[in-house]
Amino acid sequence: MPTSRQFIGGAWCDAGGSTPDGAGFFYTPTVMTDVPPGAPALTEEIFGPVMPVIPFDDIDAALGAANNSVQVGLASHVWTNDLETALRVSEQLEFGLLGVNDWNPQSTEAPFGGMKQSGLGREAGHEGLLEYVEPKTRVIGVSY
Fold first, then answer.
1. Can you say whether the dihedral through the CA atoms of 108, 28, 5, 40 is positive or negative?
2. Is residue 69's pLDDT more than 70?
3. Which residue of 33, 61, 101, 106 is 20 to 30 Å from 55, comparing CA positions?
4. Are 118 and 96 a contacting pair, CB within 8 Å?
5. Backbone angles phi, psi at 15, to 5 degrees
């Protein structure tokens, strides 16, 4: 863990941001702040414990920045004390998984998958089972 704030990947790293010696591919949980638009932490799909924290005053601007910053859409997170904000944002964000005040928005009972270039289809839940079947519509008319 850095002992002081470091500039990594276009943003400030306030915690984590390293791979401990001998840890292989393990990456320490990382918190990034002062993340500018276009920084890799916002534009690339990161499969690791990295959280860019972006405070905002205008919900519409935040939604626009989130939906337009990346061509991927696996997961997003919103932290708020306002239920109206949580519902509005969860309806408008273009991500397959959305955690509201929850860092791990998934369960085996719920579909897992992303939007945009984050894959097609779903795993888990009822929707995941549909990936393994070929639906058929059969209509039988009655003759008189």
1. negative
2. no
3. 106
4. yes
5. -155, 145
